[in-house]
Amino acid sequence: xxxxxxxxxxxxxxxxxxxxxxxxxxxxxxxxxxxxxxxxxxxxxxxxxxxxxxxxxxxxxxxxxxxxxxxxxxxxxxxxxxxxxxxxxxxxxxxxxxxxxxxxxxxxxxxxxxxxxxxxxxxxxxxxxxxxxxxxxxxxxxxxxxxxxxxxxxx
Length: 155
Hints:
InterPro entries: MFS_sugar_transport-like, MFS_trans_sf, Myo-inositol_Transporter. By secondary structure, the protein is mainly alpha-helical. The chain folds into three domains: 5-63, no CATH class; 65-93, no CATH class; 95-154, no CATH class. It has ten helices and no strands. The protein has helices at 5-10, 14-24, 28-42, 57-60, 65-70, 75-94, 96-101, 103-109, 115-143, 145-154. The longest helix has 29 residues, at 115-143.
């Protein structure tokens, strides 16, 4: 797992940050755009092409991260923020946790009157949820978050 390009820039290691962005970005243009956004947030001039730069303590201690994230986000950060909040909202709005929590009552209303069968059905739902969480966890590194997310949205 490479170090965060943002952290590397905040430490003044622009060359290392560029290498990480080149490896993790889809295109060289995307890498350059992301590096420019990070440099702008860190207060480093865009024309600075040095591998190692001196950064002031104020810009490297992370004190302005929350301000940059919520008050003055760059367009790229704003898109990421909206996507992240949207995904988490969708997870809560879908109600899967409520279904698992209230599954014995749901099964009772559905006509399963024997408590042992309701318990067995609840355990089955929990096991399936755990199984698919593990599958997603192992697949996320192999095929990527975007493809997994889009497959869930399509299904």
